[in-house]
Amino acid sequence: MMTTKEFNPDNLSSPNNLAPEQSEALCGFESITITPNFEPFNQPNDMFCRGFWDNKIKNKMVSKFFRSFVKPNERSRSADGFTPRDYALRNGPWVVTEMLAEMQKSEDRRDGFWDNFTAHIPPKLDPVPIDDPEQAANEVKKVAKVYGADLVGITNYEERFNYTGKFSARTMSNEPIELPAGLTSVVVVAKAMNYDLIRTSPSSTASTAPAIGYADDAVILLAMAQYIRSLGYIAVACQNDTNLAIPYAIKAGLGEYGRNGIVITKEFGPRVRFGRVLTNMPLQHDEPQRFGVTETCKICRRCANNCPPQAIDHGEPSDYTFNRSNIKGIVKWTTDAEKCFKFWVSKGTDCANCIRTCVYNKDFSKRRFRLLRWMLGTPLRKLALIIDDKLRLHDQLAAHKWWGDKNVEATPIVWAEDHPIDPEKVANQQRVKDLRTSVAAPSH
Ligand code: SF4
Ligand code: SF4
Prior knowledge:
The structure is a single chain. The two termini are about 45 Å apart. The protein has a four-stranded antiparallel β-sheet, sandwiched between helices. The chain is globular. The mean pLDDT is about 95. By secondary structure, the chain is of the alpha+beta class. The protein has two domains: about 30-290, no CATH class; about 300-440, no CATH class. It has 15 helices and 13 strands. The chain has helices at about 45-55, 60-65, 85-100, 135-145, 195-200, 205-230, 245-250, 295-300, 300-305, 335-345, 355, 365-375, 380-390, 400-405, 425-440, and strands at about 25, 30-35, 150-155, 165-170, 175, 185-190, 235-240, 255, 265, 270-280, 330, 395, 415. About 35% of the residues lie in helices and about 10% in strands. The site of one iron/sulfur cluster has 11 residues, from α10 and α11. One iron/sulfur cluster binds near residues 308, 311, 351, 353 and 354.
C-alpha cells in the first residue's frame, strides 16, 4: 500500500506498440486523428482521480464537492438551482450508482467509476453456437433497447483504447488493468439525458440529468453483461472505467466528435451517456456515420462562447494538451479539464452548458428540428446556425421555472451567447496557449 506522498501516477509504462506508424483519422474523421505520438490514457490522470491525489487539484472545496453527492448540505444555498430541494433532486438517482460503487468496497473496487462492474457469473456454460453474427448483433441490440438503451452500436475491441492503469483512492495505488483474453467486440449503449433539466445548466437541477443517466446506464450495462454471460460468452461492463468511451461510440456509428469534446449523436445531439460491454461474442460491427458535425463545429463556437471558465477550444483541431488530464498524441478539439473541473467545484455541482447550448441539443422528435439538422448537414449550415440563434433555445432556463413555482421573483431566462466567433475570446485563449508552450519549451 502507498501513502498519498508516495503515490506515483506514472509508475506504469504505457505499451509502446499501440501508436500508429502514421497519423490515422479515426474512421476517416479528420477532427479526431491518432498520431504516432499517441499514448494510452492512464486513469489516475482523470480529473476525478486527481481530486484525490494531485496537490494541484485536491483541496477542501474538492472534498466538499464530492461529499455533497451524499451530504447535500455541504453545498446547498439559497441561489436558484442550488437550494436544498435542487440538491435533493440531484442526489436521488445517485444513490443507485453509489450503492453499486460501494458493493465491492471490501475488494478495493469502485464499480462503474474506477473499476468495471463485477461479474455476477452464472453456472459455467458452453457458449451458445452463433452461425450468423448479423442476427446475433440484431438480437443484442433488441435486448439492449428492451433493457432501456436509447441507442446501441457494435464495433471491434482495440487494446489501445484501454486505460494503462486502474486507480484506487483507498490504497493510493495505480495497478495494471486486467481483462480476459479473447475480447473481439464492444457493444456501445447510449442513454439520452432529460432535455428540460439540462436547460437549467449550470445548476444542481440540471445535474439531475446525468445523475439519472448514470443510474439508468448502470442498470442497462449490468443486465446486458449478464445476458451475454448467460449465453456462455465473456462480458465486461464498463462505465467511467477501463477504457475510452469516445472512440468506441464513434466507431460504433453512434455519432461524431464535436468541438465540445463530446460525441454528438444524430438522435439526441450531445445529450447522452455512453456505456460499453466488452465481449468475445461473434457480432457484426456497425459503420461510423457522418451527418455534418465536423463541418458545423468548424464555423460554430456556441459551446466555447458559453463555457463559463472558457475551457473549450476556440481554435482548429490540434494535438495541444492543456494538462495531464488530456490524452497525448491525438489531433482534436481538446477541453481544458482542469478549468472545467475547477468551475464545477466552485459551483458545487457539475455543469452542462456545452450540452445545453449545442446546436444539436434538440428534441428531434419534432419535424422542424429534423429539418434544422438536415440543413446543418448541407451548405445551408450557416443559415441554420443563424436561425438557431434566433430560436433562443440555448438560453438558460431558471431552475424555479422547471419546478413550476408560481411566486418566485427571479429572472426566468439567462441569455446565452450565440454561435459566431468572438475574436477577443479566441485571442485570450491563444495567448494562454502560447504562454504555456513557451514556458514548457524555453528558447536557448
Ligand atoms: S461542462 Fe461547463 S465548464 Fe466544463 S467544458 Fe462544458 S461548459 Fe465548460
Ligand atoms: S455548439 Fe456548435 S461548435 Fe459546439 S459542439 Fe455544438 S455544433 Fe459544435
